[in-house]
Amino acid sequence: MYIMSMIRLINMTKRFGKTVAVKNADLEIEKGELVVFLGPSGCGKTTTLRCIAGLENPEEGEIYIDNEMVNDLPTLDRDVGFVFQHYALFPHMSAYQNISFPLRAMKHKKSDIEREVMKVAELLRIDKILQFKPSHLSGGDLQSVALARALVIKPKVFLLDEPLSTLDAEFREEARTMIKKIHLEIGATTIYVTHDQMEAMAIADRIVTMNLGEIQQIDAPEYVYHNPVNMFVANFLGSPGMNFIDCSLEENNTLKLGLDGKILQINEKIVKKIKAVGEDKAVLMMGIRPEDIKLSFKKDVYGFDMKVTIVEEIGPENIVNLRSGDHVVKVLTDPDILPKTGETVWAVPDQDKIRIFDQQTKKEIL
Amino acid sequence: MSTVSSMGGTTKRKKAHRGITDKQLKYLFLMPCIALLVFLILYPLIWSAYLSFTDYRAVQGRFRLFPGLVKEKPGIKVIKPNTVGFKNYKDVLRNEYIWKHYRTTGKFVIFSVLIQSIIGLGLALLFNREFKGKGIITTLILAPMMLSPVVVGMFWRYMLEPNWGVIDYALNTFFGLPRIEWLAHEKTALFGIIIADTWMWSPFMFLFCLAGVSAIPKYLYEAAEVNKASGWFRFSHITFPLMWPLMMIAMIFRTMDAFKLFDIGWGMTQGGPGFSSQTVSMLLYRDAFLSSKTGVSCAFAYILLILIVALSNIYIKYLLKARAR
Amino acid sequence: MDRKIRRKRKKGIKVAGKVIIFIVIAIVFVAYVFPIFWMGVTSLKTKVQIFDPVPKIFFKPTINNYKTFIGTAEGGEVGAGRAGAATSFIAAMGRSILMTTSVTLLSLLLGTMAAYVLSRYNMPGKDDLLFAILSTRMLPPIVVLVPISLLFTNIGLKDTYIGFLLLYTMFNMAFSVWIMKSFFDDVPFSFEEAAMCDGYTRFRAFLKVVLPMVKPGLAATAIFCGILVWNEFLFAIVIGTRKWVFMPPTIFTMSYGAEGIIWGVLASSSLIYIIPVLVFVYLVRKNLLRGITFGVIRG
Ligand SMILES: Nc1ncnc2c1ncn2[C@@H]1O[C@H](COP(=O)(O)OP(=O)(O)O)[C@@H](O)[C@H]1O
Ligand SMILES: [Mg+2]
């Protein structure tokens, strides 16, 4: 069996005592791809990355890099570049010494080392600061030095653990663009770990969404956004995340909503979809993204009425918070739509964008 | 280094209270310490500076700066020694006998500090891992340096005894080495002392080195591994440079202590055989207290003092810098 | 292919490495502990057993050595067993205990006070004072001992309790000040500020709020100062010639018999003498690091 993939995880499990940090991970990454591991803190992103680098040894499963089983291969012999979350630069070495470190460790010729270091330094625009020690460098420069140190050996696989998390918000976007640019230029297979869904959406070829040590979904950013496989993914992507309202299917193409039994008229298409999986009696969950709801100021059978609590004006859009009982629904509207607090409005979901989940399994009903 | 500098506000507010003010507390707390320093260090040093220019010998009688200030007990002679200029210093500096002692001391310092550093470093690397009973084993290894040096010296004299000493017995029986009369030969006596000193003080080096090694964060080793460094390269480029500041501090302390070696040596050889294992401290002790050459001893002590002050000056500066890190 | 071989060998090396490390640690441990163990063994041997050219670990033990230096053996041994040795051993032990306790208390008091000020206040010459205090640690004691001895003779402090008390406290000063300062430096000033906002005076804030927080430091300082005094030898033989003779010189002289050193007596008296130290080392093991390193390393 010959598989044309750069990285391949088969049923990999890593435990720390009783905690299962990564559970039965299956993953295949193409050569030259930029894949983002996305998930909340503690979901096992770093651990997965460290397993690939060989810094942790999984208890079960197999890891392949470039079609070679690397489970017993020490980190030293795996062809990976790793950028640590807090950079892990050597404090007693200058930027130059840090970047040249792997080459020196591999006993390259001095002239070669200098040439290679200058090449990556120019690529990352840090050729002016090479003589400084990490304690004298800014956050952005530290990050560039860390990237350069990982890149200088031209690794097959390039692993980045939340590389932007310690940067100030203003530099983050710039750095993100730079990483994308470098990826395009070098073409190394890259895994990029983050907990920031915006970052993931902006940079990824494919997103691997993780939760509680398990991979939830592996797909292109747009696709994941519009076709989340379960409630977790649906909620984690997007800001604000998807709204969920529990509901059950009733007669005449209607949904009885968990909002005091309010009734919502829906398309036959959705009804058919629900019936096709035979879940019409089960308890369902309706999901709808905030930008897929329109507000109507008069009664609409394709909508449901709620009270306006707060309107957050965030510039290009407004976030309107609606409430009914304990339920809160968030709606993204144009900035000129400014309902008054306490006013009753009808939230009208875009029928094509309504997603139905099984409340028990939290999975989307296809 | 100091935690507080913004004290102005509180100081003023406090003045309203009864009791001691901040300022009074400051001086009250510091005074005894300064008084002791002046009384037992500064004053004796000034006085011995003066004595070093005289031909005073303590056995001749008492020397009072202000004679007649106290009523002398009967039978106590008060004398006024003669000033001799730099004669004492010249004598000490020209004296080949004294220079030999400096060389002995230097040899002792270099060998003991070097051996202890290597052992300490090795032990630190050995102990830089988790294993069962690490805490108690470490504590027990540290015990020797808490013991009375003179007792340690005497006991090692017993253990190094060629005929019934356990060390020579073991070396002879297990390794077939000839029995050595460690402390009876001019060539080996100093090494006997170095052995005992190393048993006692290599744990000190070990402790500092261990602190240095274990303060290196694990992620730096991971970074080294990811960046292709292992074995000797990792040690020479990561471990050693990062632990060196602390090891250096320990070596400073050990050098200073080795310079003043007295107790262990006195317990083992009392300087013998001949004066082959006699350090400057031992010689000074003999001259000053057994031979009562007071004036000369003061000059001798001052030369030693200047040497030590010059050394420790550099060292303490380094120490303060390392501490401020 | 050759990579596979390397992997396998690596695993083998790992296991072998662990075994070797275990053995080396065991050897190291024995090397450091053996002399103390041997002291215990020797203290239970008779003269004949001690002079056996094949030193034995198993033998018929006797407590005669202990009896001898305490002075209750029925004749036999010379040297330590002589009349007067008994009283001198117990008296010397008593003096050592008394001096160690008093110096420790005084060092704690003065050192803590000075350290508090040096940790909390900024003043001109502070670094110089700290430097001066530390340099007393570097100073070979013999250098100042010549004038101090003369000074003590002149003002009648030689061979007295007060003389020793002041001298030892001075030579503990570097230690007590630096170690306590490092503990005070770790207590944020906001604790005193809070207390003073509650109407405490500075002095009461120090006493009631800060001091309880540095208890481990007090314990470490006390024990290290104590051990320093307990073990001191040079001052003891220079200043304490007749009345104030402490244990280390006593062990030293007591062990010399007519026919050389009486090793059994040396071992037994030394063992009795170092046992309290070992107990204290055990008690303070958590703060051992900071104590030994002069507070240079935060424990
Ligand atoms: N060295 C470790 N020892 C014990 N538990 C660990 C260790 N590393 C990670 N974990 C646990 O494994 C889980 C996953 O951690 P991690 O991979 O760091 O998550 P993420 O990078 O997604 O935030 C967490 O519950 C964490 O507490
Ligand atoms: Mg992480």
Present the secondary structure layout.
The complex is a heterotrimer of chains A (366), B (325) and C (299).
Chain A: E1 7-16, E2 19-29, E3 34-38, H1 45-53, E4 60-65, E5 68-69, E6 80-83, H2 95-105, H3 110-123, H4 139-151, E7 157-161, H5 169-186, E8 189-194, H6 197-203, E9 206-211, E10 214-219, H7 221-226, H8 231-236, E11 243-250, E12 254-257, E13 263-265, H9 268-276, E14 284-288, E15 293-296, E16 304-313, E17 318-324, E18 327-333, E19 344-349, E20 355-358
Parallel strand pairs in A: 3-8, 3-9, 6-7, 7-8
Antiparallel strand pairs in A: 1-2, 1-4, 4-5, 9-10, 11-12, 11-14, 12-13, 14-20, 15-19, 16-17, 16-19, 17-18
Chain B: H1 8-14, H2 22-51, H3 87-94, H4 96-127, H5 134-142, H6 149-159, H7 166-175, H8 189-214, H9 218-226, H10 231-259, H11 263-268, H12 280-290, H13 294-324
Helix pairs in contact in B: 3-13, 4-8, 4-10, 6-8, 8-10, 10-13, 12-13
Chain C: H1 2-43, H2 47-50, H3 64-70, H4 85-120, H5 126-138, H6 141-155, H7 161-185, H8 190-197, H9 202-213, H10 215-231, H11 234-239, H12 247-254, E1 256-257, E2 260-261, H13 263-283, H14 288-292
Antiparallel strand pairs in C: 1-2
Helix pairs in contact in C: 1-13, 3-13, 4-7, 4-10, 4-12, 5-7, 7-10, 8-9, 12-13
